[in-house]
Design brief:
alpha/beta, Rossmann fold, eight-stranded mixed sheet, 13 strands
Amino acid sequence: MIVALLVSTGASWEAAAFGALNAHPGIVVLKRCVDVADLLATASTGQAEVAVAHAQLTALDASVLAELERYGVRVVAVADDPGAGLPAVSRAVVRSVVPAGAPDELVAAVLEAPAPARAVDRTPAAGDEAPGDEQAGAVAAGPPEAPGPVLAVWGPAGAPGRSTLAVALAAELARRGRSTLLVDADPYGGTIAQQLGVMDEVSGILAAARLSAAGGLAPWVATVERTVSERLRVVTGLPRADRWTEVRPDTVAQLVEAAASRGAVVLDTGFSLEVEPGVDPLSRPARNGLTLEALEVADEVVAVGAADPVGLARLARGLSELRDRVPGVSVRVVVNRMRPSLGWRERDVAAMLAGFGAERGVHFVPEDQAALDRALVAGRTPVEVGESALTRSVAALVEEIAGSAGRASAPPVLRR
């Protein structure tokens, strides 16, 4: 599996090149770098093997090429006229030059270009396993932490706040020192990338699906993640809702299995639990397969509903459906946007929901639009923009989850 970077210069051939590279099962386009500085910063992580750049990119000078070679990144240049020479690219380092407008030749060059020796010191940290020959260039996952928990955040239709709660939960887990992966597994189009200000044209979940189909997700799991903070990483969701067909069955399960050993995993899911009739989920994707798979591999499901008559009715019906679709799942209920203007007492709402499967109790998150607005405008998690009623409530929820995990007789394991 080749992990490539594409340096974006606005050239007319880039769209076709990106599409051809992204479609090949043996290539994962990690990122479209905005400039050479971005290229070097990404290459320094040791995750990439190939950089595709315009031959006339003047900033790509000898020192940059030497730095890329030190990181073990080979360069494939795209020239408007390969016969006219390379004014900014040295042939001593760039062994592959392809003409613009020839995406098939570009794909072949990326797959076949010789790799320079990796001179950068990437000595594995304590607890890391050195990759074998069959995993040459694979990204070390880092020292393992305590496994799990794996939390799936689900809720019925009507935008009850699934993604907002998933982001807040993941950020709070990371704030407590737990390495946390947040996965956008909403088959109707994810929003977590936009919430966190991650403007990446390469979908993490689609890259994971390609690696999973090629049988190599585990050693490459770090290449589909984006770093949000020291302890928080994110796998971005579908760029468009109609691309759910590209996510093969078992992608989420493999992603969670590869990531859960390093810490906590929070899965943001879709709303629908409907099973498409006549579809074998093991042979081809189903629209709601992402959601159902996330619920199946979770140690615990956090079911969220809106604190209003419509939202609570949807939540009550959804809890019954959830029990039917995923029998035996451990469910923790959250009522979101609770506010005094409703005129309801929390204990009355909790008593009503108890009859629909909220045996682990009901947690209430207050309406705090001001805190959410600050986070959304800044492209940050609620935890990063300061303490608020929202963050205090989520912290109490995480405390309850941690307490339940501590009282368990066995460590969390993947249900699947």
